[in-house]
Amino acid sequence: MKEKLKELTKDTAIYGISTMLGRFLNFILVPFYTNVFSPADYGVVILVYSYIALFNIIFIYGMDAAFLKYSAFKDVGDEKDNFSTPYFSVLLTSIFIGGMLIFLQKPIAEFVELKSNLNYIITLTALILFVDANVVIPFLKLRLEKKAKLFSLIKILSIVFNITLNVFLILKLKWGIEAIFISNLAASVLSFLLLTPTILKNIKFSFHKVLFNRLLKFGLPYLPAGLGMMLVQVIDAPILEKLTDVDTVGIYKANYKLGIFMMLFVNMFQYAWQPFFLTNAKEENAKELFSKVLIYFTIIGSLMLVLLSLFISDIVQINLFGYSIIGSKFWEGLYIVPVILLAYLFNGLYVVFSAGIYIEEKSIYAPLVAGLGALTNIVANYILIPQLNIMGAALATLLSYIVMASGYYIVTQRFYKINYDYLKLAKITLAVTFVGTVYYLLMYGGFLLIYYKIILAIIFIAYIFMQVFEKSEMNFIKTKLLRR
User: At what angle do helices 2-27 and 286-316 cross, to 10 degrees?
Assistant: First the structure.
C-alpha cells in the first residue's frame, strides 16, 4: 500500500508543481486586471467567461470522461481507435456548434449586454471554445501515458504566452478588454500546435462505431453533470449581476478567485487521482487504500483552509512594484474568501468520491447529483443575495458543493462501499468549525488582530498532530520529514 500511495504522491507532486506554477502565472492576470480595469469592466469579462465555461462542457459533452474510461481499459478497439473516435467526434461537433455561435453573434452579444462595437468578442469566444475542445483528448492522452512533464510544459508555455500578450496589448498598445480574448485565443492555438505531434502519433482515419456508442452511453450523462457542475461555479455571476450590478460582480469574482490556492490543491490532486484509482481499482486492498487517501486529502486541505483564511487579508495587501494581489477597490469583498476556500475543499471531497462512479460505471447518477447541486446553487443565490449580498453568493456556492459531495458519497457507498475512518473525519471537522467560528466572531467584533490569528493557527495545527495523526505517522514525520 505504501508503494501505491508513494506513486500517487509522486504523480501529484509532478502535476502539482506544474499546476501550481501554471495557475500562479495565470493568477497574475487577476491583480493585473483589477489594478488596470474598473470593477465594471472586469465584471463584463467575468460574465463572458462564465458563459465560455458553460459552453466548454457542451463542446466536449462527456467525451473526456468516456475517453479516460475506455482508453484506460481498452475493452473495445485498439489504442488508436480509443484516441481517434472521441477526437473526431469532438472535432465535428465543435465545428458545428462554433459555427452557430459565430452566425448568431449579434443576438448573443445583446443577450450578454456587450457594447455594439464589441460584438466580435463573440466570434473570438467561439474560436476559443473550438480550439480548447480539440486539445482536451490529446491532453488526456498525455495524462494516461504518464507524460506529466510534457503535459505540464505545454500548459505553462501557453499560460506564459497568454500573460505576455495580455501585458503587451493592454499596457503597450492600450487596448481594452478585447485584448483578454485575443490573448486567450492565441494561447489556445499555441497549445494545439504543441500537441500536434501527439495527435499525429495516435490518430487513425477511421471511426469505430461500436466504441463510439459505448463512449456516448458512458459520456453523455456527464454533459448534464458537467453543466450542473459548471453552473455551480459560474451561475452566481449572472444572477448577482441581475440582482445587483456589474461592479458588484467584479468585486465578488476578484475575491472569489483568491480561492485559487485551494483550487490548485484540488486540481493537482485530481490530475493524479483519476489515473491512480482506475489503475488500482482491481487491487485486493483498493478500498483500504482509497480510505487512506480521503483522510490525508482532508488533513492537508483543512490545514490550507485554516491558514489561508486566517492570513488572506494580510497577504493581499502586500504591495509589489506598485501592485497588490487584487486592487484596493476590490478589498471590501475579502470576507467571503474563507467560505470560497471551504467550498473548494468540498469540491475536493466530491472528486475523491467520484472513484466509485467510474469504477462501477454508474455515470447515470452524475447528472442527478450535479443537477441537484446546480439547483441548490440557483435557489440559494436568489434567496441569499438579496439578504447578504456577495456573502450570499459565496454561501450558495458552498451549499451546492456540500450537496454534490454528499450525493456522490451516498451513491458510491451504495455501489462501492468503503469503510472510511469517520472518527478522524469528525475530529478534523470539529477543529475547522471551532477556528471558523472564532475567526468570524473576532472579525465582526473588530478584534481580528495578527497575534490572535497566530494563536488560532498554532492551536489548530497542534490539535491535528495530536488528535488525528496516528503514532506511526507521527514517527514518520519526526524521523523523515523533520530530519530533511
Answer: 30
**CB atoms inside a 10 Å sphere around CB 29:** 20
Cβ–Cβ < 8 Å for 225, 370? yes
Cell, residue 441: 466572531
CA-based angle 223:225:227, to the nearest 5?
Answer: 70
Q: Is residue 167 included in any domain, yes or no? A: yes
182 lies in which domain range?
62-219
CA distance 125 to 128: 5
pLDDT above 90: residue 184: yes
* Helix or strand (DSSP H, E) at 457: helix 450-467
pLDDT of res. 165 = 95
Strands (E) located in 255-356: none
220 HSE (CA, 13 A, CB side): 7
Number of domains in the chain: 1
Confidence of residue 277 (pLDDT cuts 50, 70, 90): confident
Most confident segment among 12-21, 49-58, 212-221, 394-403: 394-403
**Residue 153, in any domain of the structure:** yes
In a domain, 294, yes or no: no
Q: Distance between CA atoms of 86 and 104, rounded to whole angstroms?
A: 27
Within-domain flag for 376 = no
Tell me the one-letter amino acid at 274.
Q
